[in-house]
Design goal:
The protein has about 160 residues and is mainly β. The protein is about 15% helix and about 50% strand. The chain has one helix at about 5-25; strands spanning about 30-40, 45-50, 55-60, 70-75, 80-90, 95-105, 110-115, 130-135, 140-150. The strands form 2 sheets. The chain has a 5-stranded mixed beta sheet with strand order 4-1-7-9-8, with no helix packed on it. Strands 3-2-5-6 form a 4-stranded antiparallel beta sheet, with no helix packed on it. The longest helix is centred in the first third of the chain and has 22 residues, at about 5-25.
Length: about 160
């Protein structure tokens, strides 16, 4: 086997080992669940835009009429990060928007959830709650819940 090829294989193995160690140490970023819940059907399905420190997620409920959509993502980094949540029409008109800072920590499951309707979410496990009235008739509100709990904890 030529010496340069052997050196290349050793380099590839070294890079793979470093990558595996980095993943084991949790450097992949925080686990975040992003969700959209609609309390009732809307004439036009709203679109939820969530920006977590520049990482963008877009959710829309399925055409099947299901009132919920969610996705699990990995954030880019840990710490106190800016978050912006915007509810818009499919044409891009903003219905409600709010920004806040959220603390993302290792060994923690995080969430950013949006609940749209006329009833305030209740419960012990909703985290922090922000309420923004929709710029549309009907009296609906965008309720944004966010927070985190230790991995494996039941809430």
């Amino acid at each position: 086997m030529p010496h340069s090829r052997l050196r290349g294989m050793v380099l590839v193995a070294w890079v793979m080992a470093l990558t595996a160690c980095a993943d084991l140490s949790g450097s992949r970023g925080p686990k975040i669940s992003v969700s959209l819940d609609l309390q009732h059907a809307f004439d036009v399905q709203p679109v939820l835009h969530v920006d977590i420190d520049g990482q963008r997620v877009q959710l829309i409920t399925p055409d099947t009429g299901a009132p919920r959509a969610s996705i699990d993502i990995r954030g880019a980094r840990y710490g106190a990060l800016p978050v912006r949540v915007t509810l818009a029409t499919v044409l891009g008109d903003t219905l409600a928007s709010v920004g806040f800072s959220q603390q993302f920590e290792r060994n923690t499951d995080h969430w950013v959830g949006a609940d749209v309707g006329t009833r305030r979410p209740l419960g012990m496990c909703i985290g922090d709650l922000l309420a923004v009235p929709l710029a549309a008739p009907g009296g609906d509100t965008l309720f944004v819940m966010y927070g985190g709990i230790p991995e494996g904890a039941i809430c």
